[in-house]
């Protein structure tokens, strides 16, 4: 006798419960096993060493200190099409610690993405991610939290992990990755990072699934999420035709995988100190276009903590970092600005900043000042009417100095 739909759903729930129990048992066994984590990365070139190809970056002179990646802790919020793939990439790269947040469960509809498996349907995304990632690299320390960070209690818990989630369990984390798909979660992360002066990377993919972006946010130095309307990459498609009743947002694993790769590439460059970190990097699949820009903070930002960070003297004098590539002959041909700066990294002045496409953040966003191919998601309310009102008031005050007789004379002449 064939099973009914209700019986199939019941079986799915039982399977999900068993998977959760299995994950819990595995976690307990891992804690009891203790010292299974390798003490250091080996550069030995053998088939049994998972780090040999990564450590080759050091031997080739690309990264001077790749083994230091195990000292870093990264917090990821959102384990969807970008976040889950980014978590896998960081795990394979040997990151020291991953702290993962999500409040959703794995569904069959997620199978067009690159990470989750059908048998994990019904599990929480955090438990499923930890299960898979630990099997890939048991040397990484994992923490998972199934919660909505936009609630007051959970927001406080997030702040605590940001301050004490380092590899040693005491120090602050090194970087936050925002891989969420809603405005409330982004603003919550923006607030947390502004309060703690925490560097973070934000990412996203458009509803039509053919464009995406990453953005590196430095509190008080680059525009925060509330300084300006979010940037979008022009796709050349009429957006009025995208949203239709009964049609969900599109999802392409290729676009999400590419954005996740851009995200993690910049994580590695920032943490390990090689190459040029992108402050804003967009992607349009329709013409393989990669616009970039640097967004300055808005002095009139609505976020109080952002304005406080802008007032910090060290932040006020900040200029975008400009990386100089090695010469053909290696380090010998590199012009080093400082003796202890073997990578040729320097803080660019006005000339270098222009080369990066720096966009100053005015009180009202001006699309004309953006890099080619970028636009704001919506128009920011202008402060011009308020200024005009002040001018009108000042004019009224000056008129009040005119004598009553003169005013009567002006009226009679009309």
Topology:
Layout: H1 5-33, H2 52-59, E1 73-77, H3 83-93, E2 97-102, H4 125-136, E3 141-146, H5 152-164, E4 175-178, H6 183-196, E5 200-205, E6 211-217, E7 231-233, H7 253-272, E8 280-284, E9 292-295, H8 304-311, H9 313-316, E10 321-323, E11 345-347, H10 350-355, E12 358-359, E13 374-376, H11 384-399, H12 404-412
Parallel strand pairs: 1-2, 1-4, 2-3, 4-5, 9-12
Antiparallel strand pairs: 5-6, 6-8, 7-13, 8-9, 10-11
Helix pairs in contact: 1-4, 3-4, 3-7
The structural class is alpha/beta
Give the overall shape, derived from the CA principal axes: globular
For the record, the CATH class of the largest domain is: Alpha Beta
Give the strand content.
Answer: 5-15%
Portion of residues in helices? 25-40%
Number of strands: 13
What's the CATH topology label of the largest domain?
A: Rossmann fold
* pLDDT averaged over residues: 79
CATH homology superfamily name of the largest domain? NAD(P)-binding Rossmann-like Domain
How many DSSP helices? Answer: 12
The major sheet is characterized as: 9 strands, mixed
| Low-confidence parts | 238-243, 327-339, 341-355, 383-400
User: What spatial order of strands do you see in the largest sheet?
Assistant: 3-2-1-4-5-6-8-9-12
Keywords: ATP-binding, Coiled coil, Metal-binding, Nucleotide-binding, Ubl conjugation pathway, Zinc
Organism: Phytophthora sojae (strain P6497) (Soybean stem and root rot agent)
Family: Belongs to the ubiquitin-activating E1 family. UBA5 subfamily.
Protein name: Ubiquitin-like modifier-activating enzyme 5
């Amino acid at each position: 006798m064939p099973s009914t739909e209700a019986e199939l759903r019941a079986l799915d729930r039982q399977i999900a419960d068993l998977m959760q129990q299995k994950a819990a048992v595995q976690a307990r066994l891992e804690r009891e096993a203790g010292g299974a984590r390798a003490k250091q990365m080996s550069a030995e070139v053998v088939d049994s060493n998972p780090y040999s190809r990564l450590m080759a970056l050091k031997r080739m002179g690309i990264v001077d200190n790749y083994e230091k990646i195990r000292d870093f802790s990264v917090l990821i919020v959102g384990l969807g099409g970008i976040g889950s793939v980014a978590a896998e990439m960081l795990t394979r790269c040997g990151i020291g610690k991953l702290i993962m947040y999500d409040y959703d469960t794995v569904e069959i509809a997620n199978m067009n993405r690159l990470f989750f498996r059908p048998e994990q349907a019904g599990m929480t995304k955090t438990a499923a991610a930890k299960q898979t990632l630990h099997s890939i690299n048991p040397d990484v320390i994992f923490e998972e939290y199934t919660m909505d960070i936009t609630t007051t209690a959970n927001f406080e818990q997030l702040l605590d992990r940001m301050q004490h989630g380092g590899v040693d369990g005491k120090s602050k984390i090194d970087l936050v990755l925002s891989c969420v798909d809603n405005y409330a979660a982004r603003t919550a992360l923006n607030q947390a990072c502004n309060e703690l002066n925490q560097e973070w990377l934000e990412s996203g993919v458009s509803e039509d699934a053919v464009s995406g972006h990453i953005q590196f946010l430095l509190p008080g130095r680059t525009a925060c999420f509330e300084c300006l309307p979010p940037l979008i990459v022009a796709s050349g498609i009429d957006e009025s035709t995208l949203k239709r009743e009964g049609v969900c947002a599109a999802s392409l694993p290729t676009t999400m995988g590419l954005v996740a790769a851009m995200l993690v590439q910049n994580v590695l460059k920032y943490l390990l100190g090689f190459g040029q970190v992108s402050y804003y990097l967009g992607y349009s699949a329709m013409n393989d276009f990669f616009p970039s820009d640097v967004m300055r903070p808005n002095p009139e930002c609505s976020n109080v903590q952002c304005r406080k960070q802008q007032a910090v003297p060290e932040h006020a004098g900040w200029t975008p970092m400009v990386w100089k590539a090695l010469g053909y002959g290696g380090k010998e041909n590199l012009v080093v600005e400082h003796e202890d700066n073997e990578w040729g990294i320097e803080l660019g002045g006005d000339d270098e900043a222009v080369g990066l496409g720096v966009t100053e953040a005015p009180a009202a966003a001006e699309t004309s000042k953006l890099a080619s191919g970028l636009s704001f998601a919506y128009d920011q309310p202008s402060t011009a009417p308020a200024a005009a009102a002040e001018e009108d008031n000042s004019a009224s005050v000056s008129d009040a100095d005119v004598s009553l007789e003169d005013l009567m004379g002006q009226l009679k002449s009309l």
